[in-house]
TrEMBL record:
GO molecular function, one term: protein-ribulosamine 3-kinase activity
The name this protein goes by in its record: protein-ribulosamine 3-kinase
Signal peptide: none
Enzyme class: transferase
E.C. code: 2.7.1.172
């Protein structure tokens, strides 16, 4: 159910800014024969040539990033979203892009670790989260610099 609600809410946000996504119509869940089902209903979107024209796709992504506004002025989202069955750690509000990205990446690393025991991966994950991410992202919001919270796409539609 998290998957459908998150997809519905994120598509609603994307569609309100940029019509390069199907219009979300509704979502919900039901139980039949003791099995839980969820659904997402979206408007039909005729897919153009494949692969998408790189210039048009880049222009629509730029439009999404430029026109979208965070409802709180912070980074995050108001509901959990998913990538396949993996719940993403973005359902929080923070002033720091580094904090939100670290939360999300930490969840991905934790999920990856459940499939295998590999000490080198654990060490690398810790290093990336404690050294690399802050080194790359913190300077974007220090010494008078700022970045605008905006929608980040999951699905790309042409």
């Amino acid at each position: 159910m998290i998957t459908c609600r998150g997809e519905y809410e994120s598509l609603k946000s994307i569609y309100s800014v940029c019509a390069h996504a199907p219009a979300p119509l509704g979502w919900g869940s039901y139980t039949e024969d003791n099995i839980d089902y969820s659904y997402l209903l979206v408007d039909f979107l005729a897919i153009q040539k494949q692969p998408a024209d790189a210039k048009n796709l880049a222009a629509s992504l730029a439009e999404l990033h430029l026109k979208s506004q965070s409802p709180t002025g912070k980074f995050g989202f108001h509901v959990p979203t998913c990538h396949t069955r993996n719940v993403q750690a973005v359902d929080l509000w923070t002033d720091s892009w580094c904090e939100l990205f670290s939360s999300h990446l930490s969840r991905i690393i934790s999920h990856a670790k459940t499939g295998f025991a590999w000490p080198e991966f654990d060490n690398l994950g810790k290093l990336v989260l404690s050294k690399v991410v802050p080194a790359l992202l913190l300077p974007l919001q220090t010494d008078g610099r700022s970045i605008k919270p905006c929608l980040v796409h999951g699905d790309c539609w042409d």
